[in-house]
Amino acid sequence: MPLSRTSRVRKLIDRINCELDQDEWTVYWYGATPEKRIIQVETLFGKPFPTSFRFFLSSVGGGGIESFSILGVPAKGNIRHSGSVFGYTDHWREDWVPVKMPSHLLVIEHCEDNNEPFCLDFSRLRRAECPVVLYYPWNGDVEDIAPTFIDFWESYCEPYFARRTTTARGKSPKQKT
């Protein structure tokens, strides 16, 4: 029987904590977000978060692998902090953006160099999950990336594990097995 989405989130958190070489990758977590804070942000956003993303927030609050971390909700302080889902979502709705992000998108991963952000698309919330899309602020297009948050997160973390496994066998990551 397949694992539930929340079980998959827990398994990936454990895998990141246990399997990644801490000398090669910096792993960090914001700290679990209290239920009260999650509800506060959902209320401000006007929509309930998908089950897998909500469980992620309640478990670790945000973070992950330094070069690919997931934005979160701070346990204390300003909910619109620049490193939060709200802070980055607001960033993509400012006047400098050629096509401001629509209200049904919430940024969950963002590069510091202002590349296109990955977002949850709440316009397609079904069975307590919604897809992850890539938002193109230069023309307003969106590209489907994954059907759910956990599908997205697993697929983007997998290369970090594959590299570790290949390197552990004594081969460089670019060598074929």
Notes on the protein architecture:
With 177 residues, the protein is an alpha+beta fold. It has a single domain (5-162), classed as SMI1/KNR4-like (3-Layer(aba) Sandwich). Helices cover 36% and strands 16% of the residues. It contains five helices and seven strands; from the N terminus they run H-E-H-H-E-E-H-E-E-E-E-H. The protein has helices at 5-19, 35-45, 51-60, 85-91, 149-168, and strands spanning 27-29, 63-65, 68-70, 105-109, 118-121, 132-136, 141-146. It has a four-stranded antiparallel β-sheet with strand order 4-5-6-7. It has a three-stranded antiparallel β-sheet with strand order 1-2-3, with helices on one face. A hairpin with a 2-residue loop joins strand 2 (63-65) and strand 3. Helix 1 runs parallel beside helix 3 (51-60) and helix 1 (5-19) packs parallel to helix 5 (149-168). The longest helix is centred in the C-terminal third of the chain and has 20 residues, at 149-168. The two termini are 31 Å apart.
Features:
177 residues, SMI1/KNR4-like, 4-stranded antiparallel sheet, 5 helices, 16% strand, disordered C terminus
Concise synopsis of the structure shown:
This protein is α+β, with helices and mostly antiparallel strands. The chain is built from 5 helices and 7 strands, in the order H-E-H-H-E-E-H-E-E-E-E-H.
How much β-strand is present in the residues?
A: 15-25%
Q: What is the level-2 CATH architecture name?
A: 3-Layer(aba) Sandwich
User: Over the alpha carbons, how many angstroms does the gyration radius reach?
Assistant: 17 Å
Given the helix and strand composition, which structural class is it? Answer: alpha+beta
| Total discrete domains | 1
Poorly predicted sequence stretches spanning 5 or more consecutive residues:
165-177
* CATH overall fold name: SMI1/KNR4-like
- In whole angstroms, the N-to-C terminal distance is 31 Å
Q: Which oligomeric form is depicted?
A: single chain
Number of helices: 5
**Largest sheet: spatial strand order:** 4-5-6-7
Beta strands, count? 7
CATH superfamily: SMI1/KNR4-like
Helix proportion: 25-40%
Q: State the CATH class.
A: Alpha Beta
